[in-house]
Design brief:
Elements: E1 4-9, E2 12-17, H1 28-42, E3 49-54, H2 65-70, H3 79-88, E4 94-98, E5 101-103, H4 105-108, E6 115-118, E7 123-125, H5 139-147, H6 149-158, E8 161-163, H7 164-170, E9 175-176, H8 180-192, H9 196-229, H10 232-247
Parallel strand pairs: 2-3, 3-4, 4-6, 5-7, 6-9
Antiparallel strand pairs: 1-2, 7-8
């Protein structure tokens, strides 16, 4: 069974993280598959919108730390970087249905989605500094632009988590619904019924003022992220994280 499930119902495509036993922690292989499937959907005229969702109780625990340490993303040709680029450049509406934990990239990827629906159980966090790293996916540009500098700095620098209600207040999500996937599907279906070129052009216009800036920030983030990965500080933080995980 693939760790990224892909289905299409009508004009709506679905990509679902399918590693529930590991809280959908993302591996290099999963990033590669996500990028391939997103890029394929971008060029498939029968797909008018894509919903990103998950199996089990959680959206994603972020990177699989063991896989991440074995295969660190040290260049812009890495599977992680290719996936993030596919998010940035996806021309069609991207909707996310989030439940449970959305850690690290599980939160930063939402900044590239057009509409996010979250379950009341959703819990968001971006604990990059806790691991001796820096935020990625253009989040150091997009998140403060969305929530204000001070709020973004506090969340990034403490690594604290926040609830669905707080995410709604910030504008990170569009709504809270007990059945996030059903609500996301309804929105995707409404969008899919609209004239497709008008939708693509509208998204392009909405993103136009920030696209190049986000691309430049993503490049800078990635370079610093790759350097940080090689640091003693990050190694110590990873070891501490693994020890804590092992004792829990």
């Amino acid at each position: 069974m693939s760790e990224i499930l892909e289905t299409q119902i009508g004009a709506v495509g679905y990509l679902s993280f399918n590693r529930p036993a590991k809280m959908n922690a993302l591996t290099r292989g999963m990033y590669k598959e996500l990028a391939l499937k997103l890029n394929a959907a971008a060029g498939d005229f029968s797909v008018r919108a894509v919903v990103i969702t998950s199996e089990g109780d959680h959206f994603t625990a972020g990177n699989d730390i063991v896989d991440f340490m074995d295969n660190p993303p040290e260049s812009e040709s890495s599977d992680v970087a290719v996936f993030l680029a596919s998010l940035l450049n996806f021309p069609k509406p991207l909707i996310a249905a989030v439940k449970g934990n959305a850690v690290g990239v599980g939160t930063t990827m939402l900044l590239h989605c057009d509409v996010v629906v979250a379950s009341p159980t959703a819990n968001f966090s971006m604990p990059f500094v806790t691991l001796g790293l820096v935020p990625e996916a253009g989040s150091t540009f997009l998140f403060p632009a969305l929530v204000g500098y001070q709020r973004a700095a506090k969340i990034f620098m403490t690594g604290e988590s926040f609830t669905a209600t707080e995410a709604l207040d910030m504008g990170l999500i569009a709504e809270i619904n007990a059945d996030a996937l059903a609500a996301a599907t309804k929105i995707a279906e409404q969008i899919a019924e609209q004239p497709p070129q008008a939708i693509i052009n509208t998204k392009a216009l909405l993103k136009a003022s920030k696209h190049d800036s986000v691309a430049a920030v993503m490049k800078a983030e990635f370079e610093i992220f790759a350097l940080a990965l090689q640091s003693d500080e990050a190694m110590e933080a990873f070891m501490k994280f693994m020890a804590k995980k092992g004792s829990s």
